[in-house]
Protein: MtN3 and saliva related transmembrane protein
Amino acid sequence: MNTIDMVGFIGGACTTVSFIPQVVLVLKSKSTKDISLTMYSIFVFGISLWLMYGIMSNALPVIIPNFITFILAGSILVMKIRNDIVTGKKALNS
Structure:
């Protein structure tokens, strides 16, 4: 593995691991009240674009972390949407 790929993997690992505490907190508390639906919607869309870019350019340091981050952030987004529907909150108001 070359140095450039190593830097990419380390950077990707750091940004990906940063979502684990949020996922754990949401799973434990079952609360997404203080999470912005707009921010997570835009973020998950952006991550999906990075994932597509990585796939199209065949760049594993981009594909692997963005796939994992997509799953983590996407799960928070799904829980946020589900909780907002249950509480009757209007979409994209937070």
Notes: The radius of gyration is 15 Å. The domain at 3-87 is CATH 1.20.1280.290 (Monooxygenase).
